[in-house]
Known about the structure:
By secondary structure, the protein is an alpha/beta fold.
Amino acid sequence: MRRVLCLILLLLLPSVLHAESGYDAWLRYAPLDDVSARRYRDAVPPVVIVLGAETPIQSARDELVRGIKGMLNRTPRVESRVSGDAAIVIGTVTQIRQAAPQLAPAGSIETDGFSLRTVRANGARFVVIAAQNDLGVLYGTFAFLRKIAVGESIADLDQKETPYSPIRWINHWDNLDGSIERGYGGRSIFWENGRARQDLSRVTDYGRLLASLGINGCSINNVNADPRVLSPEFLPQIARVAEALRPWGVKVLISVDFGSPRTIGGLTTFDPLDPSVIAFWKNKADEIYRAVPDLGGFVLKADSEGRIGPSAVGRTHADAANVIARALKPHGGLFFYRGFVYDNRMDWRNLKNDRARAAYDNFKDLDGKFDDNVFIQIKNGPIDFQVREPASPLFGTLEKTNQIIELQITQEYMGQARHTVFLVPMWKEVLDFDMKARPGVSTPVKALVTGKTFNRSSGGFVGVSNVGLEESWYGNQLSQANLYGFGRLAWNPDLSSKQIVEEWTRLTFGNDPKVVETIANVQLTSWRTYENYTGPLGLQTLTDIVGNHFGVAVEASERNGWGQWHRADEQGVGMDRSAATGTGFAGQYRPEVAKIYETVENTPDDLLLFMHHVPYTQKLKSGKTVIQYIYDSHYEGAESVEKYVNDWKSLRGRVDDRRYEEVLAQLKYQAGQAIVWRDAVNGWFYKASKIPDARGRVGNYPGRFEAEAASLTGYRVLSVTPFEAASGEKAVECPAGNTCTAAFKFNGQAGWYDITVRYFDVNNGIARYRVRVSGQMVDEWTGADRVPSRRVDSGSSARRIVEGLALRPGDEIQIEGIPNEGETAALDYIEIHPAVN
Ligand code: GCW
């Protein structure tokens, strides 16, 4: 009988790991294992006493009940008066003092902060979640539930938390038609066809995720702003979104267009100093605040990438910012003026030109000229969310102006939803970087942007999130860790990357130590891995910067006005940004930092090519040459992703099936892409430098057979652009209406083999492929992946591995391709290797 019971239990086990979509992210409140559940059931009092009627406190109450029910299978009683029985008491300090002074915490709690305490009074045990304001109560509640979920003791709580920074906000680049600029998780959760979505429940659920991290503001439309957002007809739409977020204490902000006085206001000018324009902004602000009284404020992108700005009317950024800020001021609104101002039509032939200089050059002389509700919103690096950049020198420059740091959660240059890249370690490097902005004290970026260094009253963090309608929010389960990490850092940038990722993993995938260790390790190494197979040594990402920012295109950065130059040519590589001989960028830092970046000797290897132009034979600190480092790092990067795939496979059965399969597919895809990157970047630099790889790998691929060298029926040879996107610079394509074949002769020894087919899966057609070995069909598939490319290039380069085939010398391997619409069943190569599994 026992045996049978065990068997039944075993059979039931997989169903415990029920399919999860990722929708609940880190707020799953999955049932705890029996031992833990028993422990917490004893420790968690059975009653929840709610002392406030404010909306966020009501949300906190519901969350407590939901969390305890989910994790412990217990539904606590909810009451509003303190009796003598053990209870969880939630409320502001004022509310608790009134209702039960013996439970009130001593000392003060700061805005949005909270305390969690276990208090024994009259023989009963209370868990007291107290805060200075209603938001703090909500944040304290989430913190309490998080402790249970990750397995921390709640027996003797005595803890107080204060957020590091007052501004912990999110930006969205959502267009009113429902598309998202640089969004990779589906269409907008806010907008559809120029209006707020009918069903905004997703927005409310998103608000819950944000609140759980202490995020309390969210701008809801693209910084490339549609002027219509300020039209009277549109205000009710904003009000609806604000209403959907309000239960979670998340304020709405909007991005505005600087030309609005003309486009929306019917004026002849948008000159910020013109009285009619001043009146326009004032009236607009009054009108919006009537519709949304708790609006957080405005965000503005001006004089950048084609957006109109004050330069068009001969005014300064300060003139522009102050006029709008003054309109917001009476309502308590804040104004975020983006520091991302640069000229995208720069002359690339002038070696002194440098986009990295732009933010400093634009804002330095205006320091002190901005009103106190203006914040300069500065991207972490001086270029644009590249895989590695130094901290923007502007952080260390502004002393009398509020600033906030803009970090990008959506992985625009970081592999989008298709590559796992955990950004917290990268953000931390910037946040912890000491800008040496005041003699004798440490002035890390985190202290500067929160106003601590120069005693500004406010400052903080904004993250560009761009979630979408996909169930997983980002289109990649592991990418959720970036939103989580952003929120945790905004709350407390002193947390370590490891702490953050372990916490996230426990909440998202459970407490199994092997799961936690494996996922944390993948995440923690993923940024370096991505950097290794994209653009190391400060080269920037090396992606197609004039296209989709996804695949590799080494030269896309060059010979155009966008200024993301790396200046790689036959002789050498890197951009000379020194003050002595280069663009002078290094001199924008304070002297102690400038000294580091000014010379090749002092510059850390990771930023060498960002700061200097060197020959390929330049020795790094490790003694390796630059060119050999480029080769090696690309091999290392691609190998690391291959290892992630295997690491992930060890979690089968420990992670629910659905997310297991999704992540496995994502990592396999990434492993394939890392090889494309490896071969493309290395191939490009080999061609430019003519210096061979000391280890003989580059340009030499054992087991690889180029499609253009196969015996082709119907297929035509195509020169691929950029050349490095295809092995041997060529691919083959099948003209529409045909069925084509590429045949390869196998001449190796008889045995078990895996065949990798490298083909191109563009997103405007679904071609079919079949593989035959000496006439026997062994595999078939369609190229139906959703990738961000319509062209035969590195972004569409895809691979199919046909595993475990018995091959004999003389076998003919035939790939058949049938095009569909824009997809030409293009092939790059096949590789034949002894079977792995
Ligand atoms: O990184 C660039 C993006 C643009 C974006 C811009 C910005 C919203 O490619 O899509 O525009 O930055 O930050 O304004």
